[in-house]
């Protein structure tokens, strides 16, 4: 397996990966504006005609341990013994999330499927419904990872690229096949709950209407104070912890995608089950950085146990972490690089939701406000 980095800069154009054997897979991440300005999908498909071209929009790309907010980052990967397959599905609105997940699973399901990397529109999707349907369609045993495309705190328009085009309202996934591929995943948060615990008294799917019988939006605005004017973006700094009262140790974190001031409701990236409990969260610099390093270390150890050699590291971090860390975001990436050690080429993006198993040997699920690390290699 060979991995070469590539980059696009406005005014400079493409800095393609060095020559050699043609790549099997090309991944790219950049802002929606830059992807369209650079004609990224078409340009990459033309440059690498035999490769699967796959990517999405983000407020900032990740290349190694550096953040790239002004261009497009990517990698060109050559797999020696691993067949690949690319599938796509339309997600015109949240109600089509589960059907899109099933469509992807049915298209990729097949003998020797060893893992799936999935990217989805990040504004009009129920990420938990899409992920659950995808994993169920694959039988629940195939590792799945990826994330929801981003556009920073704007939550207006995201793109997913498959082949020679990128557009909103799409989900796409790559399947990895055969006995040579090795995949390892890990994720961690670093946020702490605060304030009163409340009951979710009215919700529908990923739309939250009421907490303790009161407007959920009104309660968020109460806590945010002057920052409430910046909703939904400012809610990224205060994610919601949710859990089933019958299983209080099994918690999920959810991030706001949009708000409806007239209805007093908030739409989250994943389901907010009625009858569950909820509590606001906030982060600290050291806890977030430590969480990212822990995720990288677990993934590296898992890959080593599986017998993987040099690897591609796909890093998906929540845009809320980027907002809170600010200029210290680089510390998070440095911690990941140090924990992964040599032999891993890193690329990634800041997402509206991370898709990864929460624990080893568990099915993938939508997570929010996490750092998710996926390592892909071939047998050493």
Automatic annotation (TrEMBL):
Q: Mind telling me which SMART domains this protein's record contains? A: FIST, FIST_C
Entries under InterPro entries matching the protein:
FIST_C (IPR019494), FIST_domain_N (IPR013702)
The organism's superkingdom is given as Bacteria
FIST domain segment(s): 22-215
Q: Tell me which residues make up the FIST C-domain domain.
A: 216-358
One Pfam family name is FIST
Q: What is this protein called?
A: Histidine kinase
Organism, by scientific name, is Muricoccus nepalensis
């Amino acid at each position: 397996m060979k991995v070469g980095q590539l980059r696009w800069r406005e005014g400079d154009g493409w800095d393609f990966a060095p020559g050699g054997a043609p790549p099997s897979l090309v991944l790219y991440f950049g802002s929606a504006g830059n992807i369209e300005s650079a004609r990224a999908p078409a340009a990459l498909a033309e440059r690498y005609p035999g490769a699967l071209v796959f990517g999405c929009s983000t407020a900032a790309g990740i290349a190694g341990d550096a953040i790239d907010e002004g261009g497009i980052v990517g990698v060109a990967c050559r797999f020696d013994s691993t067949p690949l397959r690319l599938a796509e599905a339309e997600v015109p609105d949240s109600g089509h999330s589960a059907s899109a997940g099933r469509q992807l699973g049915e298209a990729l399901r097949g003998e020797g499927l060893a893992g799936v990397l999935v990217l989805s529109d990040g504004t009009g999707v129920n990420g938990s419904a899409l992920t659950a349907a995808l994993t169920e369609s694959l039988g629940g045993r195939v590792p799945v990872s990826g994330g929801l495309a981003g556009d920073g705190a704007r939550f207006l328009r995201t793109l997913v690229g498959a082949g020679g085009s990128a557009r909103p309202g799409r989900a796409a996934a790559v399947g990895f096949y055969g006995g040579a591929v090795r995949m390892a995943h890990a994720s961690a948060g670093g946020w702490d709950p605060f304030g009163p615990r409340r009951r979710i008294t009215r919700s529908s799917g990923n739309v939250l209407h009421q907490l303790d019988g009161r407007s959920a939006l009104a309660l968020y605005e109460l806590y945010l104070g002057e920052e409430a004017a910046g909703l939904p973006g400012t809610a990224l700094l205060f994610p919601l912890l949710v859990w089933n009262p019958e299983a209080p140790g099994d918690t999920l974190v959810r991030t706001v995608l949009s708000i409806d001031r007239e209805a007093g409701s908030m739409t989250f990236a994943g389901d907010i089950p009625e009858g569950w409990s909820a509590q606001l969260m906030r982060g600290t610099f050291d806890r977030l950085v430590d969480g990212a390093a822990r995720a990288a270390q677990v993934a590296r150890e898992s890959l080593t146990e599986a017998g993987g050699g040099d690897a591609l590291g796909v890093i998906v971090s929540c845009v809320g972490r980027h907002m809170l860390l600010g200029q210290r975001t680089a510390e998070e990436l440095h911690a990941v690089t140090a924990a992964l050690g040599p032999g891993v080429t890193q690329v990634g993006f800041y997402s509206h939701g991370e898709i990864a198993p929460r624990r080893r040997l568990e099915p993938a699920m939508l997570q929010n406000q996490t750092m998710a690390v996926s390592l892909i290699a071939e047998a050493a």
